[in-house]
Amino acid sequence: MRLTKLRVSQHQHNMEIPSAFQLLVLIGLLQYSYTTSCGPPPQVEHTKPIEQTVFPVNHTMRYECEHGFKRKAGTSSLIKCKTTGWESKLNLTCIESRNGRYRAESKTKIPNRGKQ
To answer: Which pairs of Cys residues are joined through disulfide bonds in the record (predicted)?
Structure first.
Protein backbone atom coordinates (compact mmCIF):
# COMPACT_ATOMS: atom_id res chain seq x y z
CA MET A 1 0.00 0.00 0.00
CA ARG A 2 1.49 3.35 -1.08
CA LEU A 3 1.00 6.07 1.53
CA THR A 4 0.47 9.78 0.88
CA LYS A 5 2.91 12.27 2.39
CA LEU A 6 1.43 15.21 4.26
CA ARG A 7 3.19 18.22 5.73
CA VAL A 8 1.74 18.59 9.27
CA SER A 9 3.18 22.01 10.18
CA GLN A 10 5.69 24.57 8.97
CA HIS A 11 8.48 22.45 10.44
CA GLN A 12 10.14 19.75 8.41
CA HIS A 13 8.03 16.89 9.86
CA ASN A 14 6.55 14.64 7.25
CA MET A 15 4.03 11.98 8.25
CA GLU A 16 2.77 9.25 5.99
CA ILE A 17 -0.95 8.74 6.26
CA PRO A 18 -3.25 6.59 4.16
CA SER A 19 -5.37 8.33 1.55
CA ALA A 20 -9.16 8.48 1.92
CA PHE A 21 -9.50 5.75 -0.71
CA GLN A 22 -7.09 3.47 1.15
CA LEU A 23 -9.04 4.01 4.39
CA LEU A 24 -12.32 3.15 2.68
CA VAL A 25 -10.83 -0.03 1.25
CA LEU A 26 -9.50 -1.01 4.68
CA ILE A 27 -12.86 -0.35 6.35
CA GLY A 28 -14.61 -2.36 3.65
CA LEU A 29 -12.29 -5.30 4.23
CA LEU A 30 -12.93 -5.17 7.98
CA GLN A 31 -16.68 -5.10 7.45
CA TYR A 32 -16.43 -8.04 5.09
CA SER A 33 -14.42 -10.08 7.61
CA TYR A 34 -16.44 -9.39 10.74
CA THR A 35 -20.14 -8.80 11.18
CA THR A 36 -22.49 -7.81 13.99
CA SER A 37 -25.31 -9.99 12.70
CA CYS A 38 -26.01 -12.85 10.33
CA GLY A 39 -28.56 -13.02 7.55
CA PRO A 40 -30.70 -16.10 6.93
CA PRO A 41 -28.93 -19.37 7.82
CA PRO A 42 -28.06 -21.89 5.11
CA GLN A 43 -30.99 -23.94 3.82
CA VAL A 44 -31.08 -27.60 4.78
CA GLU A 45 -33.12 -30.12 2.82
CA HIS A 46 -36.38 -31.23 4.50
CA THR A 47 -36.31 -28.58 7.26
CA LYS A 48 -39.08 -26.15 8.17
CA PRO A 49 -38.61 -22.67 6.66
CA ILE A 50 -36.80 -20.07 8.79
CA GLU A 51 -38.92 -16.92 8.80
CA GLN A 52 -36.48 -14.71 10.73
CA THR A 53 -33.98 -13.02 8.43
CA VAL A 54 -31.48 -11.33 10.80
CA PHE A 55 -29.76 -12.95 13.79
CA PRO A 56 -27.40 -11.26 16.29
CA VAL A 57 -23.85 -12.56 16.80
CA ASN A 58 -23.74 -15.45 19.32
CA HIS A 59 -27.36 -16.39 18.57
CA THR A 60 -27.86 -20.16 18.44
CA MET A 61 -30.59 -21.47 16.18
CA ARG A 62 -32.11 -24.95 16.01
CA TYR A 63 -33.45 -26.34 12.75
CA GLU A 64 -36.60 -28.47 12.76
CA CYS A 65 -37.22 -31.26 10.28
CA GLU A 66 -40.41 -31.08 8.22
CA HIS A 67 -43.42 -33.22 9.10
CA GLY A 68 -42.69 -36.79 8.06
CA PHE A 69 -38.94 -36.39 8.61
CA LYS A 70 -36.71 -36.70 11.66
CA ARG A 71 -33.15 -35.75 12.54
CA LYS A 72 -30.71 -38.51 11.67
CA ALA A 73 -28.89 -39.79 14.76
CA GLY A 74 -25.41 -38.33 15.10
CA THR A 75 -26.24 -35.11 13.24
CA SER A 76 -26.73 -31.73 14.90
CA SER A 77 -29.62 -29.33 14.33
CA LEU A 78 -27.82 -26.40 16.01
CA ILE A 79 -26.01 -23.58 14.23
CA LYS A 80 -24.47 -20.42 15.68
CA CYS A 81 -24.06 -16.90 14.28
CA LYS A 82 -20.46 -15.76 14.74
CA THR A 83 -18.62 -12.55 13.82
CA THR A 84 -17.44 -14.28 10.65
CA GLY A 85 -20.96 -15.48 9.71
CA TRP A 86 -22.74 -18.77 10.34
CA GLU A 87 -20.48 -21.50 11.71
CA SER A 88 -19.76 -24.21 9.20
CA LYS A 89 -20.10 -27.26 11.47
CA LEU A 90 -23.76 -27.87 10.59
CA ASN A 91 -24.16 -31.50 9.59
CA LEU A 92 -27.94 -31.91 9.96
CA THR A 93 -29.61 -34.58 7.89
CA CYS A 94 -33.39 -35.02 8.01
CA ILE A 95 -34.43 -38.54 7.08
CA GLU A 96 -37.87 -39.87 6.28
CA SER A 97 -39.65 -41.27 9.32
CA ARG A 98 -42.01 -44.20 8.97
CA ASN A 99 -45.31 -44.92 10.70
CA GLY A 100 -44.93 -46.39 14.16
CA ARG A 101 -41.91 -46.19 16.41
CA TYR A 102 -38.57 -47.69 15.35
CA ARG A 103 -35.37 -48.53 17.14
CA ALA A 104 -32.66 -46.36 15.64
CA GLU A 105 -30.05 -49.11 15.27
CA SER A 106 -32.09 -52.07 14.05
CA LYS A 107 -35.16 -50.35 12.54
CA THR A 108 -37.22 -53.00 14.37
CA LYS A 109 -40.79 -51.87 14.92
CA ILE A 110 -41.76 -51.45 18.59
CA PRO A 111 -45.45 -52.15 19.24
CA ASN A 112 -47.49 -49.15 20.42
CA ARG A 113 -48.37 -49.83 24.03
CA GLY A 114 -51.92 -49.07 25.12
CA LYS A 115 -53.22 -48.59 21.57
CA GLN A 116 -55.05 -51.30 19.74
So the answer is: 38-81
